[in-house]
Amino acid sequence: MSVSGKKILIAVSGGIAAYKIHFLIRDFVKKDAEVQVIMTPDAEQFVTKLSLSTLSKNPVYSDFYGDNGTWNSHVEMALWADVMIIAPCTANTLAKMTHGMCDNLVIATYMSAKCPVFIAPAMDLDMYAHPSTRQNIEVAEDYGHFIIPAETGELASGLIGQGRMAEPETIVKAVENFFTSQTSAKSLEGKTVLITAGPTYEAIDPVRFIGNHSSGKMGFSLAEEASKRGAKVILISGPSSQTTDDKNIELHKVTSAREMLNKVFEFYDRVDIGIASAAVADYAPKEVAKEKIKKNDDSLTIELVKNPDILKTMGEKKTHQFLVGFALETQNEEENAKGKLEKKNLDMIVLNSLRDEGAGFKNDTNKIKIFTRTEKKEFNLKSKDEVAADILDFVEAQLLG
Ligand code: PMT
């Protein structure tokens, strides 16, 4: 489960590890989370509100009162958050949290929060090992909070030991794992998801074909994510080196567009969600030469005929299926994608543009925009696994209405 669209409240307390919060915010924002930062007055000695607000794209608060007699509502921020992260959490802030010493905005917000709380302690090794800190950590765990243990290494004091705040990637992973554990309640249990993936190869003769650069990665990531969510997955893939040993994924390998079409319609009636991520060749040679074509002449003309449009046919025959198409564009991207949404009778379309670096074919990453008839959502460049999670989150939100 990705953190896309999740509301992350980060509370910074006054320790040298506060410098790492910039990276933590950047990682969450890159993953399309909404980030709100608050800080203790002491934290302002280590990092500036300006840098934190620039990265989080939101104002940063450290006091109950704003400059113009306004009130920074700890209750509103606490109730807004899907998760609260206290990082770095100093020995002092941890002690205040576990003893209800509500003398700053961070503690007041923490005490008003109903969401899961993650604590990333950071302090010198002896403070971390001190019985009072150990006890406070236990109390915080008893409250149901998630402790992200400090790491061992060189500390600001020059000493070496346990006390370094966990790296931002570790904190992000802990939060992602939490959201995954929430959805591993198998949100697609009982659903059948059909996915097309990879390229198609259209034979010219026994040794040559017309194909494209699709690796199948996007489609396989979608299949694995749907399977994780409990769906029965039918994955129909053109020639690709991708493999899966996931037992919930029924993999059918095909070669040409016609074979892909036939395979799709073996299952289409029992499918709840159809996702067409395959890069299907629009044209195929009219005749396939029986023998290898010899290079006798200076030029060779191959007559091409239009292939069936698999997704358009799925759209025409749609009864109950929720249909997701992809649009791979190089120009007039949004207009073309919206055109395909209509023309192919889709419920949703995922646009990726070859003009975006790291997006589209072969890469392990992609950058997408999703359109329905009424909504548009833009995502940052992410791994294809994360993109697959974003797409399925969006599908699920649409299905829930
Ligand atoms: O496989 P990867 O290397 O990971 O790359 C992923 C990808 C770039 C292939 C994928 O993200 C993607 O964009 N897939 C769709 C590519 C494409 O053919 O787009 P299109 O705009 O030409 O087609 C529009 C839609 O119609 C697509 O959903 C396509 O699957 C479908 N189509 C197109 C032609 C056709 N004859 N039959 C179809 O079903």
Written account of the structure:
This protein has 2 domains: 7-181, Flavin prenyltransferase-like (Rossmann fold); 188-400, CoaB-like (Rossmann fold, 3-Layer(aba) Sandwich). Helix content is 33%, strand content 23%. The chain contains 13 helices and 21 strands. The strands form 6 sheets. An 8-stranded mixed sheet has the order 12-11-8-13-16-17-19-20, sandwiched between helices. Helix 1 links the parallel strand 1 and strand 2. Helix 1 runs parallel beside helix 2 and helix 1 packs across helix 8. It is elongated. The structure holds ligand PMT. Residues 196, 198, 214-218, 257, 276-280, 282, 307, 309-311, 325-328, 340, 352, 360-362 line the site of ligand PMT. Keywords: Decarboxylase, Flavoprotein, FMN, Ligase, Lyase, Magnesium, Metal-binding, Multifunctional enzyme. CTP binds at residues 282, 292, 308-311, 326, 340, 344. It comes from Chryseobacterium endalhagicum.
